Amino acid sequence: MNMPASLRMRRPLFPATPLALIGAAIVGFWIIVTLAGPSIAPYDPGAIVDPDVFGSISAQFPLGTDYLGRDMLSRVLVGARYTVALALAAAVLASTTGTLLGLFAAVRGGWVDASMSRALDALISIPSKMFALMMVASFGSSVPLLVLTAALSFMPGAYRIARALAVNVQALDFVQAARSRGEGLRYIACVEVLPNIIRPVLADFGLRFVFTVLLLSGLSFLSLGVQPPDADWGSLVRENIGGLAEGAPAVLMPALAIATLTIGVNLLIDNLRGRRGKGM
Amino acid sequence: MNKTMAKLLVSRIAMAVLTLFIVSIVVFAITNLLPGDAAEESLGQAATPETVAALRAQFGLDQPAPVRYARWLTHIVQGDAGVSLVSGQAITELIGKRLPNSLVLAGATALVSVPLALTLGILSAMYRGSLFDRGMNMLAVSLVSVPEFLIATLAVLLFAVKLRWLSALSHTADIATLGQFLRAYAMPVFTLCCVIVAQMARMTRAAVIDQLRAPYVEMARLKGAGPVRIVLSHALPNAVGPIANAVALSLSYLLGGVLIVESIFNYPGIANLMIDAVTTRDIPLVQACSLIFCSAYLLLVMLADICAIASNPRLRNP
Question: How many whole angstroms separate alpha carbon B42 and alpha carbon B56?
């Protein structure tokens, strides 16, 4: 296998290409909204403020109103908490455990590696949405369950990536040198291997975050995720789906919010990975 | 077919069967962890300790989990998935009615998406770095990262609400002509294609480019081969394995997309059946549907592996 370019030369961790900056700006925007959402919402998200339902975009209601006449902007701002924060929690959980286990398996090798890889391969053979549906069917839907479900379903992927990268790195001379120096497993994993795989691992974390957002909002869209009265962006699309025939902004706006968030993250990590494919 | 390859293929198939077995354990474990059980569920208000105990004995729920698992698995393997808790119908019958619909939907999607994705992927690998490639890449990134229901709602908004070409719901009952078929399937298939074409094209592009960076391609270029010849007769044969892998893996993404698409278009397929089962917590039906989906997924992944083995010249002629 060819050595990835990132191993041969040291590059800054965050190259500031224009696309990466746009991505970072979008992600930053949504993080601020998540933190400040409830306090900058113009109305109470649960209050019926418009006698019209499925109101269109106006100065008073910048994103229109929903199927009960509630302000969509406020509902999207408050819903960010569920979409962004839940996904972030789940993705951090999935990536950290996956990466640590993967590093450990690669550095330890032998039967530990083999049995861990086989077990997690079995988990990976359950598509994430299937797994989530089974969890919801068995345990009912709640916020901790959703986070746990998403973390469990995306952890094996993070493990696989981290392990594959670490196996490549730990075959290199400087790791062999550390081994023959008699360094411990933890030292080799954290000091020799981890810094050399951190870039792709971070990019992979972004990807896990996107997967989680899509999984959780998909579940909410099926009315099986975040339960009323709370609503994430997926639930907002679902509860307003009746306005689709009128082309109400209430259906599209939350879906677009998800799209901008996930595209933003993707822009960021795509440029974090470096421009593969360009120049040979 | 030589010995090495036969051995590899057999081991892959054995691995898939083993994985399916482990998956079935996971499915059973998840759906049986809760203390509340089918007996209490189905009695509801009428549950007294005596009736629950009687029904538990009747369902065999008073036995330890491994015994119940073994019995459940033998029944499933024999084609008896039990009875739906909600409707009381046989699950095999329920699934039998819905499965063909889902297969038609998946088949139609594969038929449209695979040739499209391969063409787009190979073209953008050939002209990598060009405006076309960058545009395709942007489009692919956007499509991969937006939720399926956004694509579906946009499709409904455009084709059913604004242009009035198609109806928003799919009616599979009254399909007699090709035109009716196309009208009913256009939007679900369009949505599913958007979901997987992007993925497939991207992976195809990566596979071809991976080959284009190999030393033998540089050799071919030094010998004066043109870009079309390099891609089609040098790189592509070596990229078939990764591409077949990409196709099978992308098709397995279909399983997730199908859930959303069948739900939004109210399509009478097995994914919708499963969503209803989850909503009503009809556990036996959920188990059966998950096993079907997981087997389909495993089958596709196994096919991906086999394609990779079969196209590897070093394994074919050792």
Answer: 11
